[in-house]
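Crash report, auto-generated. Payload:
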Amino acid sequence: MSYLPYALAVWIFAVGLYGVVTSRNLIHLVVSLTVAQSSTYVLLLSIGYVNRGTAPIFADVPKGTRAVDPVVQALTLTDVVVSVTVASLLLALALQAQKRTGKTDPDEVAAMHG
Amino acid sequence: MTRQTRIGLFAVSAAGLAALLLWAVAGLPDFGHYRGPYGKVLNSVAVGERHATNVVAAVTFDYRGFDTLGEEFILFASVMGVALLLRHERGERERLTTRIHSDAVRLGGAGFAAGLLALGLYVVAHGYLTPGGGFQGGVVLASAFALVYLAGDYRSYRALAPIPAIDFAEGAGAGGYAVVGVVSLLLGSAFLHNFGPLGTTGTLASAGSIPFLNIASALEVSAAFLLLFTEFLEELAVTPGDG
Amino acid sequence: MIPLQAAIMGLVAAGALAVVLTRDLVRLTMASSFYALLLVVLFLVFQAPDVALSELVVGAVGFPLVIVVAIVLQRGG
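Recovered output after restart:
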């Protein structure tokens, strides 16, 4: 029971990979990749969790209160914003590929010949 | 390799990968029994050392400020990639001319856009006191501008956010972050080391150089998202002679 | 682990599967936004308000806007 969050992260990653492999549309492929990336957020945050801990913001609670780990939160929050930009770059690439070949299925786009 | 073969191969290897991953995470400490000393040390000393009550913001912009510099440059590079990909083929194009005809949508959008702008500025400014910061507030600011497009028309959005201004703001944000780090070098300490008066804990005038880094990253993130929206929306423009 | 966390984790697992299994593109946008909302609740329950704020603005505004424009461009403008 105490390994459930880690198993959740592995499940989300596997589900995202399944979406990438069986995708029939380039946009669906990029969204499945985003789902696979969200598994890393879940894993990072669940590593830093402390039982009965509160958020690491000491604006209104006294300084000695038990709080969760702030370092993994700092890593995750910049990652969330940046990964959306990278996903848009992938979408722009997908649009260019569709403009060049006229097909939206990843299997058919990959079959380009020189 | 046919599709069926590929899916079968994926099923076998995914099962193996999942087994390996589950065996790997079973070696981690139990959920809730965080062991590592780094987080506990930071929680107890960060408020006293940096006078910032949001320890996550202190970690993002001070203790691990160098990682945030790397993330900002990833943002910069990927938005530059989108601009490169989508910008080169545009010749003479008419702008999008669809207008929203519903008065309720236009009125609601106008009201909410101003409120969103104020909220974004608040979230950015209080980033090192309460939950928030440059990254979150920057995206809220960008969505305030995007609301002008969604509830109004494209011309108003382009008038509010011209591409040269957004380009300059994004470069200024990314460069500003590095410049603050270099100022710290010139003052005799390490790159991105905290400098400046630490002020009173819990007020806006505190935490040394964290407010400057906060503002620089907010500028960069909001300009990056606006540039992203603009590049994608420009693709929808109609070439004269069509339709 | 408190029961609230277990319940939200179950919902997130189901949400990820739902996003991947949706084939229609417009419904995919809605499913992806809803999955982001479930992730926001999960991050809040894990006591991470900053991360929840980031995921909220990005999943509600940033990503759906880009996907919708990409869908329109894919269908021919």
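Post-recovery validation: Residues 85 and 94 of chain A are 14 Å apart (CA to CA).
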